[in-house]
């Protein structure tokens, strides 16, 4: 369970919005609720074990004024991205932004935007066929790490096996990432990445790469475009083997089994073991 730091009423003069708002500017009031672990600071009573509130306020103020945005939603996203990507100790954040001047005819007591964002541990499987399989996996991981919303934190070995369909050899690698993207946005990002590397080709080619979302935290998701956990996880030994390398104690949200147990059961069922 997380602890929280609350920063309320940070005032920043900036030029956001359209028409007059973007020209004249106004004071915005920013409230933050920052999720982290405060116990080390509480036990050891040292500033080095906590976040520097003054530094946080200064950095937020600077990034808020650095660019002009049309919407408060974009402003809130920039702040949440700064906190979650620049500070490893921050796990989630609530950002609220209020206007002090509302240029609309109707009277309101407040116009504000409030968003909640968090880091979610996600497991992906990268599967590549034919000649460029290793290069494509490396390329995909580099592009993931270059995103402002994703960070690769752990990788399994790069496995190579012959396809059971007789179409050649394939390589796969399981990776753990921290994602600021929600499931549907992450799925869209991965689809676009697949298309970019594969060149939107149909059928198998030297550039075939497939990226699957295996787990998104402990969430169970069923939509027309996305099913998580991936329903084929327990049918693919190479995937389970990769997961077992990097997160053997992760519990499958549906079967409620640890990955290491799933691996053991697969090895017993199919009568094969690691060398």
Overview of this structure, please?
With 275 residues, this protein is of the alpha+beta class. It has two domains: 116 residues, 2-Layer Sandwich (GTP Cyclohydrolase I, domain 2), CATH 3.30.1130; 151 residues, 7,8-Dihydro-6-hydroxymethylpterin-pyrophosphokinase HPPK (Alpha-Beta Plaits). It is 33% helix and 29% strand. It has eight helices and eleven strands. Strands 5, 6, 7, 8 and 9 form a five-stranded antiparallel β-sheet that branches. A four-stranded antiparallel β-sheet has the order 1-2-3-4. Strands 10-11 form a two-stranded antiparallel ribbon. A hairpin with a 4-residue loop joins strand 10 and strand 11. Helix 3 crosses helix 4 and helix 7 runs antiparallel to helix 8. The two termini are 40 Å apart.
Key features of this structure:
275 residues; alpha+beta; five-stranded antiparallel sheet; Alpha-Beta Plaits; elongated; 2 domains; 8 helices; single chain
CATH domain fold name of the largest domain = Alpha-Beta Plaits
Shape: elongated
The CATH architecture category of the largest domain equals 2-Layer Sandwich
What count of helical segments does DSSP give? Answer: 8
Number of domains: 2
Rounded to an integer in angstroms, the radius of gyration calculated over CA atoms is 23 Å
- Summed over residues and divided by their number, the pLDDT gives a mean of 89
User: What is the CATH class designation of the largest domain?
Assistant: Alpha Beta
């Amino acid at each position: 369970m997380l602890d929280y730091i609350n920063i309320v009423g940070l005032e920043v003069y900036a030029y956001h919005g359209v028409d007059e708002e973007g020209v004249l500017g106004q004071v915005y009031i920013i409230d933050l609720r920052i999720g982290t672990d405060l116990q080390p600071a509480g036990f050891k009573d040292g500033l080095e074990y906590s976040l520097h509130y003054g530094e946080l306020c200064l950095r937020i103020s600077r990034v808020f004024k650095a660019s002009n945005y049309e919407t408060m939603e974009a402003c809130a996203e920039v702040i949440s991205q700064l906190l979650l990507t620049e500070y490893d100790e921050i796990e989630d954040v609530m950002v609220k932004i209020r206007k002090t001047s509302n240029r609309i005819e109707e009277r309101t007591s407040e116009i504000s935007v409030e968003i909640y964002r968090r880091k979610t541990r996600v497991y992906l499987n990268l599967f590549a066929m034919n000649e460029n399989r290793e290069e494509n996996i490396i390329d995909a991981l580099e592009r993931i790490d270059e995103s402002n919303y994703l960070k690769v934190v752990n990788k399994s070995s790069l496995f190579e096996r012959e396809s059971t369909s007789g179409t050649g050899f394939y390589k796969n690698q399981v990776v753990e990432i921290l994602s600021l993207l929600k499931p549907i946005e992450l799925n869209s990002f991965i689809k676009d990445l697949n298309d970019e590397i594969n060149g939107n080709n149909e059928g198998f080619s030297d550039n075939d790469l497939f990226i699957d979302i295996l787990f998104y935290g402990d969430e169970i998701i069923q939509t027309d475009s996305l099913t998580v956990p991936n329903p084929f996880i327990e049918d693919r030994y190479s995937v389970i083997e990769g997961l077992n390398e990097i997160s053997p104690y992760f519990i499958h949200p549906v079967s409620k089994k640890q990955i290491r147990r799933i691996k053991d059961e697969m090895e017993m069922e199919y009568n094969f073991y690691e060398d």
